[in-house]
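Researcher: Good morning. I'm working through a list of sequences from a screen, and I'd like to move beyond sequence-only analysis. For each chain I'm collecting a predicted structure so we can compare shapes side by side. This is the next one on the list. No need for commentary yet; just the structure.
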Amino acid sequence: MSELPTGWANSTVGALWELKYGKSLPEKTRQRGDFGVYGSNGPVGTHIEPLTSGPTIILGRKGSIGELHFSAAPCFPIDTTYFIDDFGGCDAGFVAWLMRSLPLKTMNRATAIPGLSREDAYGLDVLVPPASEQRRIVAKLDALTARTARARADLDRIPALAARYKQAVLAKEMEGRSDEMLPLSAAIESGLIGLVRSKAEQSDATGEPYVRMQHFDLDGCWNIKDLTRVCATDAELARFALRDGDVLFNTRNSVELVGKVALCGPEQAGFLYNNNLLRLRFDAEVLPKFAYRYMQSPQFRAHLQGQKSATTSVAAIYQGSLYQTPFWVPSASRQAEIARRVDQAFSEIDRLIAEAAAARRLLARLDQTVLTRAFQGKLVAQDPADEPASVLLDRIRAERARAPKATRGRRKAAA
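Model: Good morning. Structure tokens for this chain:
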């Protein structure tokens, strides 16, 4: 075993703190005080008479085992949780951070509902610093995690900002002249609603790949991991098979997603498609990539808003209405240049999104690294003048030896 940091001592969870059982909610609650009720997933929103009298650590005992919540105020831990409200002279915030560092979430031994054994938790080894250093560790951890939380919140905003930026790019690039606007029907060679196949007619192994509306998102990005297959006649294959350059338009979906489009590439050539999708093949004078980008633009989507026919949960855009939507057809060279600029801008935006996601993952690793260093005595400096943790542990043992043993009684059977 490596040498202990100055003033630290070895112990176990069970030697230091008692994991008390939460209680079931009382039949009648009193609206007295602002005391949160805690389950294994955190506050459940009810306010009742507290079970604890001060700062409390709540741990998931059944279900979400090891999930930890720290309440600075009195609260009522419910019967699927353990709680600690007697810290034996240790800093409550320090104990909360220490418990977060332990592998409690991996200690399930139940076969049905996950459960955390109290005896298993009690057997975990812990290193305890002097009480003064505990407070320094808490202050440092609170400050560092506050900074990473702010960084995480900023990174989490990037996908939404990127989506707005993409729409701004499209809005700028797709400002067309009125004399170059045509109804969509004049720009397409053909349009065809897809092949009807029930769920029972779909397979994971037999037939041709079958594209449904969930296989591309609002940005036109493909996701075909759960692609099913269907059987089709030669005539159906000839009629419904996709080609490189086809544009799929989603005619039925939720109000938010109806009207999304995707561009078919060589990877989708030969796929069949569902009857909630309309396949558009554009005239030879219209570049498919430009058509696809124009149909994603705020200008085109603004026209679609007035064409949506919605029920409670489903919206539709009918083929006849879609064909009357104004569609911009500039020269072929300008189409190619606009498509190139949009692709270049989107590629840069996607790179930034990927970098933000990578940074987000690094923050999680950073938090874990900081936590590990904290409980190895490497986060803050040791002070030889601090009272050694061994003295603190002696006091805890003496106090626990004097305290009466608590028991967990059973409810009396109803008469």
